Amino acid sequence: MTFDIGSMVRARGRDWVVLPESGADFLLLRPLGGSDAEIAGVYAGEGGEEVTSAAFAPPSPAAFGTASGARLLLNAARLAVRSGAGPFRSLSRLGVEPRPYQLVPLLMALRQSPARLMIADDVGIGKTVEAALIARELLDRGEIDRLTVLCPPHLAGQWVEELRVKFGIDAVAVLPGTARRLEKGCNPGQSVFERYKFTVVSLDLVKSDRWRQDFLTNAPDFVIVDEAHASAEGEGMGTKRHQRYRLLEDLARKEDRHLILVTATPHSGKEDAFRSLLRLLNPDFARLPLDLSGAQNERARATLARHLVQRGRKDIAEYLQEDTPFPTRRDAELHYALHPDYAALFDDVLAYARESVHVPGEAQSRTRIRWWAALGLLRALASSPQAAAATLRERAIAADDGETDEAVIDRLGRELVLDPEEGEDSALDMTPGAQVDGEQSETTGRLLTLASRADALAGAKDNKLKLLTAQVQGLVDQGFAPIVFCRFIATAEAVAEHLRGALKGSEVLAVTGRHTPDERVDRVEELARAERRVLVATDCLSEGINLQAAFSAVIHYDLPWNPTRLDQREGRVDRYGQASPEVRVLTIYGEDNRIDTLILEVLVRKHRLIRATLGTSVPAPEEAESLLDVLLSRVLNAQGREVIQPLLFEDVQAFDLKWRDAAEGEKKSRSRFAQNSIRPEEVASELRAVREALGDAHAAQDFVLDALSGAGVSVSPRVDGSFEADPAQADVRPEYRDFLRGARRFRFDAQTERGVTPLARNHPLVEQLASTVLGQALDAPLEAAAKRVGVIRTSKVATQTTLLLLRHRFHLTGRKGNRTWQTLAEELDLLAYAGRAPADGKGGWLDAEATRALLALTPEGNLDPVQKEDRLTRVLADVQGLDGPLMARAQERAAALLEAHERVRGAARGQGVTYSVEPPGPPDLLGIYVFLPLPKLGALS
Question: What's the farthest any 2 CA atoms get from each other in the chain?
Answer without folding.
Answer: 121
